[in-house]
């Protein structure tokens, strides 16, 4: 292969995106070099490019199915030509932080993200993955490329919301924010046994999808305070848990109000505003309401399990794909579609 | 009402069942008297009548929807004429045992069962329920009588297996025994997010239903050792958990073998044989395999939540009903059908 | 007995306390009437009288050992003359809320508190306790009166902080606020296996007691930001959990900063100010830091277990008693001592 | 250094132990070579040599403080000359099994043990440790050599029993078997907040130590069935949990009987006999009694936390040392002392 490659990424931080030229990464012993087979842009790519100051030259993208092009000397389970799903969280597992419990963070917060965070992402002609035996999964027969791309970020993140919400059989759960991640929180809540799932969003396309994924009602924040609408639906009965998959920190405060004593608020969104809980809600802190949240799990076994849900017919994730592109160069169009976010977009995908 | 009633129950313990005459129970302050609207016989009625020595004169039955005919002086939430689902487990809640955690047992093992256990069951013209405000639930609009009967025993028991099995998204779960309870463990496992569910049973009708409830494969214990068949399906990979919903204690030993390190074996069946785990499997005790199990949860809130699963379309439990009868006297036929258990029976129901 | 009694309580809400005359409460079937044998004032009595608007005429006090003077018709386990420990939380247990899990709250937040909250407290010549078989515990032989008074509020509350903090063997835990409740959080953290316990307080007497109860270091908020002092002690390593047993909501924000990824913040204090978490700390919401907290557990079995800790020599709670009074009228002095809170006060007690 | 070393190990499997000559192990990139500074023999060394068929030539020993003599090219945190505690469980962490949860087992049961299991142990002049940055801990200042040796096996194992037993404040716990591991289960149960701890052993020296470590009573299996003795002590009240730290599988059956509904039986002993639970106890399987157990956790962070318990004065583990030897050759005497197990032996140590 040539020594250089191009990729779609940051030209001027928080200002301009475009195509960059980079050296093809050198593969270290536990790593693999992959070429993208299918990729999706993510709202966090957009945020990274517009407000979170990702550095100039960095190639974006962390949702992909890839083809293995080269493997390091210590790689045992994968070989050149393998088609693999790549998750958004691909930790270096030989890290003392793993002994504290959560591989998403390791020795530092969010330390398990590499693609587009600590090194170049999947919107390049090539990209490398650390600890490849521990982080990628063969795409099983019968699982589509799009499912392979979506499980590693949309599904694992949305489902993590349902995991953190500690759902019991028959619970009533509110999901605030029903972009693709929130839709997967709806699906995840249904797959944890929630009975009633109230999805909060505005766009007809996502409200329709929410119903297909297991929501029993949808409401729009444009129709009044979420709290009021939820209480009207439940007859003023607080809900068992709230999953926050979008919006601002104001949603967390609203979630405190609508959650029952000893209920759970699970946050999987990245908010950028001050969080204020009024003294009038301060009883929240002595009534066993629990607030938790965090970055999705990654790694190979997680991915294999989520792929099993698709493979065994328990989850149809492909309904999230609203727009398809063909050709590497179309990454740019797909990114801008995600950035512009017209009302009919859920998730664009680019096939190479 | 007349002072006496008839009911179907025990004539000679472990020998003969038939119709008995009893006084209509007197209603204490926290109790209600109900008449049955729909009832199902249960294999534990059959076992109670045949091998577990239920006493002469006891009326059987603990699965019902009933009509409230009288309420005690302390009852607040229900009134004469209400149509309510009645669960198999109806504890007296004012019991110090509740402070240890599990209302199924209270101050003594299985102490939360009253109907057909500590007093007469639902196969009488009338039956009474203790602590009625805490134990029954209004049948919601749109929920069928049969669903109302089934949630209180088949669903809560089968689902409890899935709860105890500590299922995670994407797990592979084996369900041994797919009578109506086991079928609900299959459904429950699917509703906790299991990907692959291997159901072990023999009869075509239940194997077919298992597939409809979320099983991905079914195997028969008549086709060889369960362990061997499961390992063949998984490529010798131990499974995440096993739910035991029938069979003998030999199934528990087999479950130990097929469960992964740190996996869980959840038992919801009542076995009557010695349990033997061979020394050759003794490593089971140092590899964090966990064996647990127990009687299903009951009570009103549990019932309301399970009814919500039906009401909001997450569970279609009526498929369990294989035979329907009409008329109180037909309880006898339904019981004998359950006892004879021909190959096409899943669950008979009697509507009054 | 005479028909009336006197008690120390509220003359003018948020303004004046003093002696009131009330009718002796009538005992309902599940209740008991007690006379106080020993009582302690609590800071929440002081707050109730000064800022939380407890109503005129209400008798204060919820920490007591009492003598049973009369029992209702349904009481089985206690009789006149029994000397019992009475916890601050004495729920009515026949409540559907119990089926949601936490008896502290039942059908409404904090609904498990009766004494001095929903009816008159223990600073009267008589007081009544609901559901007495479920709520009080015989004072075991060899356990002092003061221990009996302290377990039902100081110990159960402080220890609840340690329970909620999810402490593992060898953890480093910070306890913010070391009044008597915080001191019991220190003791509780030690009894859950924490290795290093950093106690935050100012007064020499409580700092000394903190060390005796298992703290390994104490710091004062007067010596600089708590965060800075903790980080200096740990060499900038975040701590495993923080228990907040006093102070303001600002302490919660500070706790977020010093807690490790996936660590826990457990709040057992009642704050009355807005809680603000700056956007700069917003990563807190995606790093699996968990905030929880709530009112202490009550009830008889809880109390019996905590009394067992004293009885079997695992906890010496009497060291909390800094001042002793003799005679019912001295409740007033003890209350004012607690309210004035001179630097040598930890916990005053009044023996009758 | 010379190319060969001697070590104490297996001459004839299950028959003869003695001194063997081996090549000094070659250090791979993530490994370190250590020389022992202090070591203890373990009953599992004795069992390995006598009944479990450890292979000829294998050097025994897995409890040590060592001096680092050489480090592999990838080692970052340790250097030649460091004095470190070495735990019995030292996994290779770059293993997909870690993603299932328990590092003790990794991809195969007990796979986290290397020393004396998968390669030569610490009774050699040199021994190597895999993944050294992840597995050993600097001996903190002020912590004795003996404490450093004991935390890595006796403490982590005994404490793991207390962890698995799911102890709550004020619980009553039975510990069956009070060799050094069981004594640490006693200490661990006390440090999890158990109130009453009934220790089952026979020898005066260990019964005395049990009391010092927090037992409230000791009983001997020579004085009658353990069940009967425990029930006599508790007034026939079942206990909250049982930790099995020795004996045979018969103890597990006995533990089922004495454990309360929904209680836990935690096994940390390696039994070599069939386990039989009689049908008469079969209710055990429907009363939510939970049986679990497993090999102790290892790794660096675990070790650091346990060392913190010693360092901060929460645990005095040195009381376990009953006999001390000086000089490498004395490993043989120490091993035979452990094997003969006269009544005054708790734990022998050998200082180099």
CATH homologous superfamily designation of the largest domain in chain A: Medium-chain alcohol dehydrogenases, catalytic domain
* Helix and strand pattern of chain A: EEEHEEEHEHEHEHEHEHEEEHEHE
With helices defined by DSSP (H or I, 4 residues minimum), what is the helix count of chain A?
Answer: 9
Largest interface: B-D, 39 and 40 residues
Q: What separation lies between the terminal Cα atoms of chain A?
A: 18 Å
Uncertain spans of chain A, ≥5 residues at pLDDT below 50?
none
Outline the structure in words.
The structure is a homotetramer of 352-residue chains. Chain A has 352 residues and is α/β, with parallel strands linked by helices. The first copy, chain A, folds into 2 domains: 4-139 and 316-351, Medium-chain alcohol dehydrogenases, catalytic domain (Quinone Oxidoreductase, Chain A, domain 1); 158-293, Rossmann fold, CATH 3.40.50.720. The first copy, chain A, has helices at 43-50, 132-135, 145-164, 180-190, 204-212, 226-234, 249-258, 300-311, 331-340, and strands at residues 4-12, 16-23, 32-39, 64-71, 83-86, 127-129, 137-138, 172-176, 196-200, 217-219, 239-244, 259-267, 275-277, 290-293, 321-326, 347-351. In chain A, strands 3, 4, 5, 6, 7, 15 and 16 form a 7-stranded mixed beta sheet that branches. In chain A, helix 7 links the parallel strand 11 (239-244) and strand 12. In chain A, helix 6 runs parallel beside helix 7. The longest helix of chain A is centred in the middle third of the chain and has 20 residues, at 145-164. The first copy, chain A, is globular. The model of chain A has no long low-confidence stretch (mean pLDDT 95). The interface between B and D is large, with 39 and 40 residues.
């Amino acid at each position: 292969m040539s020594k250089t490659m191009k990729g779609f990424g940051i030209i001027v931080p928080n200002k301009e995106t475009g195509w960059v030229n980079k050296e093809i990464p050198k593969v270290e012993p536990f790593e693999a070099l992959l070429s993208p087979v299918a990729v999706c842009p993510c709202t966090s790519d957009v945020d990274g490019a517009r407000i979170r100051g990702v550095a100039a030259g960095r190639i974006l993208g962390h949702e992909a199915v890839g083809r293995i092009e080269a493997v390091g000397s210590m790689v045992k389970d994968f070989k050149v030509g393998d088609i693999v799903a790549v998750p958004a969280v691909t930790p270096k597992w030989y890290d003392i932080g793993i002994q504290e419990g959560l591989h998403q963070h390791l020795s530092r917060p969010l330390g398990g993200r590499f693609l587009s965070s600590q090194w170049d992402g999947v919107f390049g002609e090539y990209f490398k993955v650390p600890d490849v035996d521990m982080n990628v999964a063969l795409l099983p027969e019968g699982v589509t490329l799009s499912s392979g791309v979506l499980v590693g970020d949309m599904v694992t993140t949305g489902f993590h919301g349902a995991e953190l919400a500690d759902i019991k059989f028959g619970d009533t759960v509110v999901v605030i924010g029903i972009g693709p991640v929130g839709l997967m929180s709806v699906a995840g809540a249904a797959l944890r046994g929630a009975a009633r799932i109230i999805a909060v969003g505005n766009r007809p396309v996502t409200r329709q999808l929410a119903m297909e994924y297991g929501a029993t009602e949808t409401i729009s924040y444009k129709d009044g305070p979420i709290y009021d609408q939820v209480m009207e639906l439940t007859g003023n009965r607080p809900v068992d848990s709230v999953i926050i998959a979008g919006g601002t920190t104001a949603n967390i405060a609203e979630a405190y109000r609508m959650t029952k004593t000893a209920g759970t608020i699970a946050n999987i969104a990245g908010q950028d505003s001050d969080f204020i809980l009024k003294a009038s809600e301060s009883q929240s802190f002595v009534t066993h309401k629990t607030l938790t949240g965090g970055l999705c799990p990654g790694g190979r076994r997680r991915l294999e399990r989520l792929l099993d849900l698709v493979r065994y017919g328990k989850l149809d994730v492909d309904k999230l794909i609203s727009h398809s592109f063909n050709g590497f160069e179309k990454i740019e169009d797909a990114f801008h579609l995600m950035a512009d976010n017209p009302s009919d977009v859920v998730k664009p995908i680019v096939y190479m």
